[in-house]
Amino acid sequence: MVIADSQSHKVTTNLKENSIVVDGTEISLTDDNKFLMDKGGNENAMMAMYYDISTHQAMFFAGGQLTQEMPTNKEDITYKGEAIDAAQSKAAYASVRLPATFTVNFHDKKLSGKIGNAPHGNVVVEADITGNTFKGEHKFDAGQGVHHATGSAYVEGGFYGEGASDIAGAYARQGTYTNNGVETDLATHGVFHAEKQ
Fold first, then answer.
1. d(CA 140, CA 164)
2. pTM to 2 decimals?
3. More confident position, 47 or 9
4. pLDDT tens-digit readout, 134-150
5. Interacting residues of 162 by C-beta distance below 8 A, sequence separation 6+
């Protein structure tokens, strides 16, 4: 995941051209061996997933213009959006778009949320807010006959736009799942973007 540090660099995104501009220099997010699998976002923040044909690896991006003046609201604020969720085993790689809902309390500096309806279960997010970024962990609740074992997990992201109008970030986990008695190694990862309601 890339989180742009807009205090040090002027960063803009261009969803149509599949590029970012850092300090006036355009950087392509694709080349001949990579292709865009999915993307989303707006002028404040974006998320994208690319696939490298030569290495058979997916790459994720989430970023934009970080919020400079953070809110301090004591009440919970809801963000709704989407995630690009992907799972990779030795046999297959698949991605899907899922609904994402987050609750943020700027006063308590906490973010929680759910990325839902994944075949391997919902991604449940808990993170601490530091400045205009957040970092924490995620876990899965069991979904549709699939049980996940323990594994390392993280989530991180940032607040984007005026008044923290958007959030975007990434998550990843390495673990196993059991489905119909068959255990398989599984890496799950994704990116998300959501807007303040």
1. 27
2. 0.73
3. 47
4. 999 877 665 544 444 44
5. 67
Interval 36-84: pLDDT, tens: 556 777 888 888 777 766 776 777 778 888 999 999 999 999 999 999 8
CATH ID of 66-196, from 3.90.226.10, 2.70.70.10, 2.30.38.10, 2.40.160.90: 2.40.160.90
Structure tokens at 137: 């962990």
Residue indicated by tokens 């068959």: 182
Burial per residue of 101-129, b for 16 or more beta-carbon CB atoms within 10 angstroms, e otherwise: bbebebeeebbebbbbebebbbbbbebeb
C-beta separation of 145 from 118 below 8 A: no
Take residue 94 and report the two structure tokens written for it. Answer: 């698949």
DSSP state string for 74-137: SS-EEEEEEEEEEEE-SS-EEEEEEEEEEEEETTTTEEEEEE---TT--EEEEEEEETTEEEEE
The label of the residue with tokens 């976002």 reads 41
Average predicted confidence (pLDDT) for the chain:
75
Alpha carbon distance 109, 88 (integer Å): 33
How large is the C-alpha radius of gyration of the chain? Answer: 17
Q: Are 98 and 115 in contact (CB under 8 A)?
A: yes
